[in-house]
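Researcher: Please translate sequence to C-alpha cells.
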Amino acid sequence: MERVYEELDKVKVENEKLRADYKSKAELCDNLKKAHSEQLIQIQEANSKVEKQAQELIEKSNEISKVKQLFEDHKRNLIEKESIIKRLSAANDKLRVDSDEKNRKWEEGNRGLVLALDEANEKNIDQAQKINVFKAEIEGLKGLLAASQKKCLEAERKAKASKELRERDDVLLKLEEDNKKVEVQLKWKKEQFKHLEEAHAKLQDQFKASKKEWEQERSTLVVEICSLQTSLDSQTRISGDLQNRLQMCNYALAHEESRRKCLEVQVSEFRTRFESTFAEYQDAKSKFECLTDQRDRDIAALRHSLGTKGTFYKEMEYRAGKLESENQDLLSSLKELQEAQIHSAGSSSLAKLRNKLRNVEQVHRDCSVKLRAKEAEWSSQLEKLDRERNDYRSELERKDATLEELKMELESCQSLTLQLKMQNEEISVMLLVLKAAVSEAELKLAHVENDRDLHNKEREEHVSLLMMQLEMKTAALSKAQTDIEEEREKTTSLLRRIESSNLIEEQGLLMQKELDRYKEMLDESAKRQFQLKEKALQIESEFKEKLREFCDALDSANLDLAKEREKTASLSRAVESFDHIEEEQRFPMQIELEKYKEMLEESSRSQIHLKEQVAQMECDSEEKLREVCEALDAAKLELAEQREKAACLSRRVNSLDHIEEQNLLMQKELEKYTEMVEESSRCQIHLKEQIVQKECDSKEKLREVCDA
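Model: Translation complete:
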C-alpha cells in the first residue's frame, strides 16, 4: 500500500508538473497569439503604406508623363520659333540688301544731280560770257553813237558852210548807197528767214514727236501709278495681316515663356515632393526591414518553441504510455493484493481500498481524457500555425516581389528625373542663346535704322544744299537779266537821241514789214509757248489730282490699317483668354504662319519690284527734266539769236527816227519775251521743286509703308 501511495504521490506530482507545463504552454500560446496579432496589424499597416506609396508613385509617373508631353511640346515650339527666327533673319538680310541697293541708287541719283548742277554752272558761265559779249557790243554801239554824233556835228558845220543843193546831192548819194546796202541786207535777211522757217518746222516736228512721247509716257505713268496703288493696297493689307500675326506670335511667345516658368516651378515642386516621398520611402523601407527582421526572429522563436513542444509532447506520450503500463501493472497487483487482503483483512478495509481505487481510476480516466483533448487542441493549433506560417511566407514573397518592382520603378523615376533635369538645362541654355540672338538682331536692326536715318538726313542736307545752289544761280541769272534790261534801256535812250533824215521812210516801211513778219513769228512762238504752258499746267493738275487720289488712297489704307490694328488688339485679347483653344489650333496656325511667311516674301519681292519701278520712274523723270532743260536751253539760244538779230537791226537802224517807236515796241516785246522766259524758267524751277517735293513725299510714304 505504501508503494501504491508513493506511486500515487508521484503520479500527483507529475500531474501537477504537467498542469504547470500546460499552464506555461497556454501562456506561451497566448503570448504567441498576441505577438502574431500585433505582427498582423503591423503587416497590414505596412501594406497600407506600401499601397499608398504605390499610388503616389503611379500619380508621379502620370505627372512625369504629362511633364514629358509638355517638354515635347516645348521642344516643338522651340523648333518652330527657331525656324521663325531664321526666316526673320533671312527677311532682315533681304531688307538690308534692299536698303543697300536703295542707298546706291540714291547715291547715283545724287551724282546725276551733281552732274546736272555742274552742267547748269557751265551754262551759267556761258551765259555770263555772252553777257560780257553783249556788254562789249553795247560799248561798241556807244562808240558808234559818239562817232555818229560827231559826224552829225560835222555835217551841221558843213551844212552851214555849204549850200543846200550839195547837201541834197550828198544825201541822195548816201541814200542810194544806203538803199543798195539795205537791199543786200534784205536779201541776207530773207535767206535767214527761210533758214528760220526751216528750223521752226523742225522744231514743230520735234515738238509733236515730244508731245506724242509725253502722252505715251503719261499713259504709262498713269498705268504704273494705278498698278502701284493696287500693289500698295495689297501690300498694306499683307503688312497689316503680318503685323497681326507677328503680334499673335509675340503673345504666344510670352504665353509659352510664362508656361515654361510655371512648368519650372512645378518641376521644382515635383522634385521637392519626390525627395520627400523618397525619404519617406526609405524610412518605410527601413521600418519594413526592421519588421521583417523581427518577424524572422519571432518565426525562429516560434519554430524553436514548436520543436521544444514537439519533443516535450513526445516525452509526455512516452511517459503517458509508461504510466498506463504501470497503472495496468498496479491494477493487476492491486487486484492481486485485494484478493489476498480480502482473504486476510476485513471487509471494512476492503471497502475503503476499493473506494480509493475507484477514485484513482476515475482520476486516471479524467487525466487521460484531458490529455487527449489537450493533444487534439495542440495538434489543431500546430496545424493553424503551419497554415499561418505558409500564408506569411507567400505574403512575404509577394511583398518582396512588389518591393523589387517598386525599386525598379524608383530607379526608372530617378533616371527620368535626371533626364528631365538635363533637358531643362538644355532648354534653359537654348532659351538664353535665343534671347541673345534676338537681342543681337534687335541691336543690328537699331543700328541699321540709325544708319538709314543718318544717311537719309545727309541725303536731305545734300539735296537742300543743291537746291540752295540752284536758287543762288537762278538769282544770279535774274540779276544778269536785269542788267541786260538796263543796258537795253540805255540803248533805247541812245537810239532816241539819234536824229536822221526823213528820206529813209521807204526803207523804214520795208523794215516795218520785216518787223511785222518777226512780230508774227514771235506771236506764233508766244502762242505755242502759251499752249505748252497750258499743257504743262494741265499735266501738273492731272498729276496733282492723281497724287491727291494716291494720298487719299494712302490715308484710307492707313485708316484701314488702324482699324485692323484695333481688331488685332481685340483679337489678341481674345486669344489671351482662349489659350487652351490655341493649343488645339496650333497646327493650322503653323500652316497659316507659313502661308503668311510666303506672303511676306512675296510682299518683299513686290516691294523690291516697286522700288525698282520707283527708281525707274525717278530716272525717267530726271531724263524728262533734262530734256525739258535742254529744250529750254535751246529756246534761250534761239531767243539769244533773235536778240542778236534785233541788236543788228537796231545797229542798222541807228539813223532812222521813224523806226524808234518800232524799236521800242520790239524792245517791249523782247522784254515780254524775257519775262515769259523768266516765267517759264520760274515755272520750270517750281516744277522741279514740286517734283522734288513729290519725290520726297512718295519716298516718305514708301518708307512709312515699308515701316508699317
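Researcher: Any highlights?
Model: DSSP finds seven helices and no strands in the chain.
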